[in-house]
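> forwarded from #structure-qc
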């Protein structure tokens, strides 16, 4: 029997592939009728970037077709796929708005293209391996009545394990380490309550469109990885808040398209980690943060070497060093006039 093995610290059980497929079919079976044409002036625009992921994208769109509210539109951005994604979606999902790149430009560029074309004041970014559930949009949309809220993080479940979270938003540690809040953990009472958090995970996140455009949207030079962390910081610097809403629920396959043990991915991840830390860590926290960050880099480098990607990890860090003048210039631009926001932000960082 073919299996998928979960090797997290919390559990090492072997999950039958057949059970995963049953859960996926239950969430994504094709509806009897496609949604009507999107409204001319939608309240919500769902943006899905995809690259050579037609099979899983179909399942994602089928789930949307079952649960899409009448006030929403769906935009798929084909990021230079070679698997016939654009042709297939035009044929099988005609209610979807399609943007097509001739060449692969990366996650951030694809999402930004969708944001530019979106007609709704609220954007939801979705990975192509996510599956929405009934009422997921309604629960999140209500929170945008508060104009200080720029992003909402839904409760995202891991497809392969029962009652285990993929994310409940983002956590950023003073060391420079970012992770999914509640990732790979059982859903306890702490994750069943609405609360303010640091930021939202872009695999499934709601954003206020005008706030995104005001802070520069997703950083295209990041391509992917840590892009949502950097965006969370910029929204914070602009004075906005992020709310976790557990009543909005999404299912995530998780890492369907990317493997952090591949050298190019490890290099980009390592580079963006440094960009995010040095551009955003509040100045009054740096004396504490820098020694912790250096210790963290030593441990991460050792782990990367053990996994056989040490050279790629080091290459990413050296590239960050070469970019240091530009990184520090961007840091000054972001932080100079925002001392009060920096104090509030440091509370968020130290509280999680």
């Amino acid at each position: 029997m073919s299996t998928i093995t979960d090797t997290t610290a919390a559990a090492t059980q072997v999950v039958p592939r057949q059970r995963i497929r049953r859960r996926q079919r239950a969430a994504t079976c094709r509806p009897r009728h496609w949604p009507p044409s999107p409204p001319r002036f939608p309240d919500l625009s769902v943006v899905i970037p995809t690259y050579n992921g037609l099979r899983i994208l179909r399942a994602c769109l089928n789930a949307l077709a079952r649960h899409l509210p009448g006030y929403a539109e769906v935009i798929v951005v084909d990021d230079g796929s070679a698997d016939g994604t654009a042709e297939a979606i035009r044929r099988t999902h005609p209610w979807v708005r399609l943007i097509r790149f001739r060449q692969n430009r990366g996650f951030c560029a694809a999402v930004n293209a969708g944001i530019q074309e979106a007609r709704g004041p609220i954007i939801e970014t979705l990975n192509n391996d996510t599956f929405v559930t009934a009422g997921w949009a309604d629960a999140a949309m209500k929170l945008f009545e508060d104009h200080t809220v720029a992003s909402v993080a839904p409760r995202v479940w891991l497809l392969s394990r029962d009652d285990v979270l993929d994310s409940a938003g983002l956590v950023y540690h003073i060391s420079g380490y970012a992770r999914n809040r509640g990732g790979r953990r059982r859903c306890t009472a702490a994750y069943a309550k609405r609360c303010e958090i640091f930021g939202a995970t872009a695999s499934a996140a709601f954003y206020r469109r005008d706030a995104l455009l005001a802070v520069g949207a997703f950083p295209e030079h990041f391509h992917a990885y840590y892009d949502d962390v950097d965006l969370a910081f910029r929204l914070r610097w602009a004075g906005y808040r992020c709310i976790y809403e557990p009543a909005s629920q999404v299912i995530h396959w998780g890492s369907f398209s990317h493997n952090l043990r591949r050298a190019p991915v490890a290099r980009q991840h390592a580079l963006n980690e440094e960009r995010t830390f040095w551009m955003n860590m509040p100045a009054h926290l740096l004396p504490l943060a820098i020694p912790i960050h250096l210790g963290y880099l030593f441990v991460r480098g050792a782990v990367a070497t053990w996994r056989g990607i040490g050279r790629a990890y080091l290459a990413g860090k050296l590239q960050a060093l070469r970019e240091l003048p530009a990184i520090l210039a961007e840091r000054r631009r972001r932080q100079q006039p925002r001392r009060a926001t920096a104090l509030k932000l440091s509370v968020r960082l130290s509280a999680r």
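QC bot note: The two ends are 41 Å apart (CA to CA). The chain has two domains: 3-252, 263-351.
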